[in-house]
Design goal:
five-stranded parallel β-sheet, flat, 52% helix, two-stranded antiparallel sheet
């Protein structure tokens, strides 16, 4: 039996209100951009809280996860989702087209609609598809939720997709409403920011927001379930559960895993608390060892470039004078050539650990944000660089 979802209705209501223009000082009608570290509940919130809340308000919600199938280009994933939305709403579309007339709608005939070419030059534009879906549903808005949207930053085709969505958003607006609601989420703030941080970005002017982590209410609900299912643990202290949750980075799936392990090593509340904290510490230590092993497997120049990328974040410039001087100082060489730095970056991008990510425009970012937390921990402990 799957575990129940921990709902966050207040947060879903807040975001839905913003998207639908019910909060005057919000920019969400131009796009809601949410970032959250992987495994902290972001996707569950989008699918099981925000989407149902929007649906209750008459919004047609379309969800895509650009990491669900890495073999497919993001533009293809979005196109397939729109195809399915058209198919699911075909009775309404057919009724509307017959009532409106083909010429008025500007379609080649709904029964001969070529769904495979949605978004392509020879097919319907994204705006036309959204417009048909909205008008067939009496003008009700549509929400497109794109999870891991930063994946659409690595090719010309996907960049075109983002611009097409921006255009569709603008064309769907009326003086009183936004009929295409865009929610783009990502597991890396710096990457997602590239969609809106410069005049060359499709959503320039918007802001990225950090999705709040699950708070102590989640821990309290977990404690209630624990005591209900294990009466012998009635005396378990919520404060110790909170401590373990924080050690694990407030990641709910890892928290549940730690509890399951601790239950096997305890017989009362006190032994359970001890076991849980131990498991949480072991999980954190295992993560740190994995990152240390990955770091030590790199060449000295790769290590220097990775450290620079971690510390500089979105300000990272791989080949400027300051970066080259940093690499030279870290590797103990009088000078480091730009070509050598490029080879180091390329080598890290090809590693199975997915260390370095590159956008279409040549921006770099750390692929796994856990590396950033690991680095910060070691710096705080005055243990950087990591010993072997």
């Amino acid at each position: 039996m799957s575990k129940p979802h921990f709902a966050r209705p207040a947060l879903a209501t807040e975001y839905a209100d913003e998207l639908l223009g019910k909060r005057r000082f919000s920019d969400a009608q131009n796009g809601l951009f949410l970032t959250g570290v992987r495994r902290t509940g972001k996707t569950n919130f989008l699918r099981f809280d925000l989407m149902p809340e929007l649906a209750l308000r008459g919004v047609l919600t379309i969800y895509v996860d650009l990491l669900a199938n890495k073999q497919k280009a993001p533009s293809e994933v979005v196109r397939e989702a729109l195809q399915q939305a058209v198919i699911s709403n075909l009775p309404l579309i057919e009724k509307f087209v017959k009532k409106a007339g083909f010429e008025k709608l500007g379609l080649p005939g709904v029964f001969g609609l070529d769904l495979k070419n949605i978004g392509n030059v020879e097919g319907l534009s994204l705006y036309q598809v959204f417009d048909v879906l909205s008008r067939a549903r009496d003008g009700k808005p549509i929400a497109l939720i794109i999870d891991e949207a930063q994946q659409a930053l690595t090719s010309d085709e996907d960049d075109t997709l983002m611009w097409a969505l921006k255009s569709a958003r603008d064309q769907m607006k009326t003086p009183t409403a936004a009929n295409l609601l865009l929610v783009l989420s990502g597991s890396h703030t710096d990457k997602l920011t590239l969609l809106l941080s410069t005049p060359r970005a499709p959503f320039w002017g918007s802001q990225v927001r950090v999705l709040p982590l699950l708070d102590n209410d989640f821990v309290d609900a977990t404690a209630t379930d624990l005591r209900t299912q294990r009466p012998t643990l009635a005396a378990v202290r919520n404060s110790e559960l909170v401590r373990a949750f924080e050690l694990i980075g407030r990641r709910p799936s890892l928290f549940d895993e730690a509890i399951r392990i601790a239950l096997g090593d305890s017989h009362d509340a006190q032994s359970f608390e001890v076991a849980l904290i131990k498991v949480a510490q072991q999980q954190t230590a295992a993560d740190h060892r994995r990152y240390s092993d990955t770091f030590h497997a790199l060449s000295p120049l790769e290590q220097a470039v990775l450290e620079r990328l971690i510390t500089e974040g979105k300000q990272f410039r791989a080949f400027d004078a300051q970066a080259l001087a940093f690499y030279a100082e870290r590797t103990g060489k009088p000078k480091v050539a730009v070509a050598a730095v490029q080879r180091a970056i390329d080598a890290m991008r090809e590693r199975s650990e997915d260390l370095v990510w590159k956008s279409l425009r040549g921006d770099y970012a750390i692929y796994d944000q856990g590396l950033i937390a690991w680095h910060a921990y070691l710096v705080n402990q005055r243990a950087w660089p990591p010993g072997k």
